[in-house]
Write a structure and sequence with these properties.
Layout lengths: L1 E6 L7 H9 L3 E6 L2 H11 L3 E5 L7 H11 L4 E5 L4 H8 L6 E3 L5 H14 L5
Parallel strand pairs: 1-2, 1-3, 3-4, 4-5
Helix pairs in contact: 1-5, 2-3
């Protein structure tokens, strides 16, 4: 079972993405609406992946990645970001972010992200 946390206040925009993640029978998805709640989720359950929306009310996405790593250095992260690949690489360098997602990710991005996570965890399909 893959445990994922999606931190976003944009539930409507993320609806199809979240539905695609949840449709996988091997995924348990928890949705939270703040960086503080994401930190608490990592403390409580050590998820495999935290997906961070860049529009959280209480923290910047890369600051949250750093805080998450202090709690659990093994947690994987992905960030929803408007940055292009080069800018994203610069901003996330050294943080071990699994990947960048577009501002309105959908089912295709969900499938790609799960595939990447499974390969990283040695659960490749």
């Amino acid at each position: 079972m893959l445990c994922l946390v999606l931190a976003t206040t944009r539930a409507q925009v993320m609806k199809n993405f979240a539905a695609a993640l949840s449709a996988d029978p091997e995924v348990r998805l928890q949705q939270v609406t703040s960086g503080a709640a994401a930190l608490e989720a990592v403390r409580a359950s050590a998820p495999h992946l935290v997906i961070i929306d860049g529009h959280l009310p209480d923290t910047a996405p890369f600051d949250l990645v750093q805080e998450l790593l202090l709690i659990n250095a093994m947690v994987n992260t992905a960030v929803v970001s408007p940055l292009d690949d080069e800018e994203f690489h610069e901003a996330s360098e050294g943080l071990g972010v699994l990947g960048r997602l577009p501002l309105e990710p959908g089912p295709g991005e969900a499938a790609q992200l799960l595939g990447k996570l499974r390969r990283l965890l040695g659960q490749g399909r």
